[in-house]
Design goal:
The chain is an alpha+beta fold. The chain has 2 domains: 63 residues, Gyrase A, domain 2 (2-Layer Sandwich); 123 residues, Cyclophilin-like (Cyclophilin, Beta Barrel). It has 4 helices and 13 strands. The strands form 3 sheets. It has a 7-stranded mixed β-sheet with strand order 5-13-6-7-10-9-12. Strands 1-2-4-3 form a 4-stranded antiparallel β-sheet, covered by helices on one side. A two-stranded antiparallel sheet has the order 8-11. A hairpin with a 3-residue loop joins β3 and β4. α3 packs across α4. The longest helix has 16 residues. The protein is elongated and about 55 Å long. The protein starts with a strand and ends with a strand. The model has no long low-confidence stretch (mean pLDDT 91).
Length: 203
């Protein structure tokens, strides 16, 4: 892990992969909860962890911390968020073909997988869900769709994601849900935040 300064009051931890990001996210969150450091926001990315609103001298302190015990971390403890999903996405047959399985078998794989939110981005409430692994990664569409409806469940690379609002997008669509993924009136506004466990449940 490498520590870089990001502006006047933030640090960027550059990690080897998503597993290391999650390990450091948990470690930083643990230290904040224990009162060992002050940080306003902890924002994970695909291979980085941004610490915003940090105190002077924290870069040197973080660099001296021992590596987390394991970079392959177990799922976050706590309840699993279940997302009722209708599996009728227009790319579902294509995904099944890429996996060399039938459509029912592809749906079974998706519903049997426990996903974990690796990080959020692209749009408010859009969670990048890890769980399928590189073996079942699928490429994005060559040409993004001009409009993907809210609630669409898609796959891109090794991630699963659910569109919280209608927007352009190039993920391969496998289903849809009526769940609300983001609502500013809720606390927290996003249903799926970093570290949250999630399952797709056939509706």
């Amino acid at each position: 892990m490498r520590v870089r300064r990001a502006g006047a009051g933030a640090l960027l931890l550059e990690c080897a992969d998503g597993h290391e990001v999650e390990a450091w996210r948990r470690e930083v969150s643990r230290r904040r909860a224990a009162g060992e450091l002050r940080v306003t926001d902890i924002v994970p990315g695909a291979a980085t962890l941004l610490l915003d609103g940090v105190e002077a001298g924290l870069a040197e302190a973080v660099a001296s911390w021992p590596e987390p015990a394991s970079t392959v971390v177990p799922p976050t403890q706590g309840p699993v968020v279940e997302i009722a999903t209708v599996f009728d996405g227009e790319d579902l047959a294509d995904v099944a073909g890429r996996w060399a399985v039938s459509v029912p078998a592809a749906v079974a794989r998706l519903t049997e997988t426990e996903f974990t939110v690796a990080f959020c981005g692209f749009a408010p409430g859009f969670a990048y869900l890890r769980g399928l692994g590189e073996k079942f990664a699928v490429p994005r569409l060559g040409t993004p769709r001009p409009r993907v409806p809210a609630g669409a469940v898609g796959l891109a690379g090794e991630y699963c994601g659910i569109y919280p609002t209608a927007s352009p997008g190039g993920w391969r669509l496998v289903g849809r849900t009526s769940e609300t993924l983001f609502d500013v009136r809720n606390e927290p506004p996003a249903l799926l935040g970093p570290g949250t466990r999630m399952r797709l449940v056939a509706a």
